[in-house]
Predict the structure.
Amino acid sequence: MNKSAFVFISSLMIINVTTLSAQQFVANYDEAKVPSYTLPDPLVFNNGVKVQNIKGWDKRRTEIFKMFENEVYGISPVWKGDIISTELSSNLYLQLIQKELLS
């Protein structure tokens, strides 16, 4: 590769990096700028088929729970650690025990 081609490719890469920078956050205080949104019909499966009976509703309900798990709550990673604590103080009259978590 000659020097001019290297300079040209390098400059293109630098231009691409500068244009891919993150956008600045701009708060929206005007509700007219918010796009309209309608909730999906809870009695229609993700593939467009309508719920016809109780068994279908049980399947649709599972779909809705999975959507919430993925989109709203998120999936927690599996943790296989141990929690170790020591007792700092206790008051058995008030049934209080104060513990400190070590890990």
Q: What stands out?
A: Helices lie at 3-19, 54-73.
